[in-house]
Amino acid sequence: MTDQPGQDRRSRPEQRLPIQRPPSEPVPAERFTSPPAIRTFELTPERAAGIVRQSGSARWFGFLATLVVVIFVIIYYFYELGVPGIPGTSRLTKEVESQQVLLVERGYNVYQANCARCHGVQGEGGIGPVLNDQMKLFVHLNEQYLRNVLYAGGRYVCGNDKSLMPVWDNRNGGPLNYQQINELIAYLRASKGTEFTLRDPELFEPEVDPGTGEIETFRGWRDDAFRPAPNATAVPACWTDAFNTPAPSGSPAASGSAAPVGTTVALSALNILFEPTTLEAPADAPFNIEFANNDGGIPHNVAIRDGGGADVFTGETFNGVQTRTYSVPSLAAGAYTFICTVHPNMTGTLTVQ
Ligand code: HEC
Ligand SMILES: [Cu+2]
Predict the structure, then answer these.
(1) What is the dihedral of CA 305, 307, 308, 311, to 10 degrees?
(2) Cα–Cα distance measured from residue 338 to residue 329, given in angstroms and rounded to the nearest whole number
(3) Are 123 and 188 in contact (CB under 8 A)?
């Protein structure tokens, strides 16, 4: 560069606006379309590599997304239905079981409130027949039978229209609704192997034993492992038939036809109770019991047990109203109890002296 601009200015042609336009040329036809570089479909190697990379990761993404869904479905399947071969892993089964437990726990309260006074707190029997017998629970007391008995009342059992057991189902005029009947049946058939929580009948809160501070529990009656012996006699359809068979031979059972010898004591049964409940008899001498069953259509008998609970005499069971005289063999002095085999709640004391 020089510091003499004048010189410089002189040496160059002076440029002034407007600048002269260059001579116009005819425009090539191609200028009206996109340039050939854009119109070409060929891939550059970079672009091709980019596409390959992109679709590769898209495939991975799709594969992983599908995998997540598939794994979820499999896990959920096993979560709901349980892992094969591992018991207790199925959510659905657990749900069903907890529903069943709830039914049984409610059924316990329904039973204690309505049935225990006749059938015993543990189903051991009383005015009504025993219910906790394994042989009975095995087939006789099945769900449908229980439904029928509760619907029709005690007359369903032996056809006795004077049966002491009323109708329970409210579709037939009884006091229990459909749900309570289901709960009862669940309790009657509940397993011995399961421990259930005792709950307050109104609040349904677990009952706590005030002594130990622990939650009180109960168990069902039915033994899951029970199988009747091959030669076992089936439970008769009518429960009293089990008592009407004569006492086994060899036992000192008496029949009404034997001629009375020795002292005779009178005993009667009315409304599933003995009257009187205390008897006296002479020691070491045979005596007779004149037994009047005044309960129409209801079977009773008299059996005598010694202090240790062993049977010393079992009288024949017969339906009322009837009177029979039992001949009792001589007994040693002591205190005995007499019971009705049919109704375990019918008891009295016999003093032999
Ligand atoms: C008033 C006493 C009484 C009450 C309360 C009672 N029962 Fe009974 N139950 C009987 C008598 C008695 C029989 C026998 C039927 C007959 O032959 O008369 C019987 C029979 C039955 C039988 C049939 C037993 C068998 O061996 O076939 C079942 C089951 C039964 N009761 C369940 C119940 C249930 C469940 C309740 C509570 C809702 C209940 N009972 C309440 C007196 C009672
Ligand atoms: Cu009886």
Answers:
(1) -10
(2) 14
(3) yes
Helices (H), the chain: 5-11, 36-39, 45-81, 91-114, 116-119, 134-135, 143-152, 155-158, 178-188
Query: pLDDT tens, 226-241?
Result: 999 888 888 888 888 8
Tell me how far the alpha carbon of residue 272 lies from the centroid of ligand 2, in angstroms: 6
Q: Which ligand is nearest to the CA of 147?
A: 1
Q: Report pLDDT digits (tens) over 1-36.
A: 445 555 555 566 666 777 777 777 776 665 556 666
Mean pLDDT across the chain: 86
Dihedral of alpha carbons 122, 124, 125, 130, sign: positive
User: Domain segments of the chain: what residues?
Assistant: 92-219, 247-352
Regarding the beta carbon of 187 and ligand 1, being less than 6 Å apart is answered: no
Please indicate whether residue 103, judged by its CB atom, sits closer than 6 Å to ligand 1. no
- pTM, full prediction: 0.72
Distance in angstroms (rounded) separating the CA atoms of residues 172 and 174: 6
Note the pLDDT of residue 117: 92
Residue type at position 178: Y
Q: Which CATH architecture has domain 247-352?
A: Sandwich (2.60)
Q: Does ligand 1 have an atom closer than 6 angstroms to the CB of 242?
A: no
Q: Max CA-CA distance within the chain?
A: 174
Listed as ranges, residues in the chain with pLDDT below 50 are 1-2, 247-257
Whether omega for the bond prior to residue 321 falls within 30 degrees of 0, making it cis, is yes
CATH class as words, domain 92-219: mainly alpha
pLDDT at 262: 79
Ligand nearest to the CA of 112: 1
Q: Quick one: which atom of ligand 1 is closest to the CA of 168?
A: 38
E strand spans, 232-286: 264-270, 273-275, 278-281
Nearest Cα neighbor of 286 from 332, 250, 249, 246 is 332
